[in-house]
Amino acid sequence: xxxxxxxxxxxxxxxxxxxxxxxxxxxxxxxxxxxxxxxxxxxxxxxxxxxxxxxxxxxxxxxxxxxxxxxxxxxxxxxxxxxxxxxxxxxxxxxxxxxxxxxxxxxxxxxxxxxxxxxxxxxxxxxxxxxxxxxxxxxxxxxxxxxxxxxxxxxxxxxxxxxxxxxxxxxxxxxxxxxxxxxxxxxxxxxxxxxxxxxxxxxxxxxxxxxxxxxxxxxxxx
Length: 222
Description:
By secondary structure, the chain is an alpha+beta fold.
């Protein structure tokens, strides 16, 4: 919209635009200070990938992961504390989630292992959340009752977080289903080629055998 048209805003339109900009700024600021780590990475065969995170004592953290593609869709997972204590350990898991509270301040290690597989690569999704979710800036910092704008901002923030979680899980399931369909299609393709070659070989063998039956052979006794 050009600047000349912006001069004709009514007072009601200006009052509506200002809260909307305020809500968007709150949501963007909250996403910047979020302590959530979410990524998708490739795990080669016979390899191990580890991630490190500083966590203070008595702070809760949660790990969620899922194998999207590769082999039997399974990996070995381990969470290790700064004192080498094993907090969580599972073998050949397709997906799982685990929540824990840090007993010591230090660096915590999350490892995904594919060492049991000798030829299949894995595509793994993980999400690590540390500490409680940060409130929206300016909301909850005062003792007075929340205004209608602040309440609406909190509700929009919660709804957007739920939407993001649902979209993430739907994308993971869609990617996993698409990969399974592609693998099935490839297997059917090569099986069809094998069956076609087998039919040609059997047909050629039958023709040669029948031709041999009706061919003239020279007599051994004259």
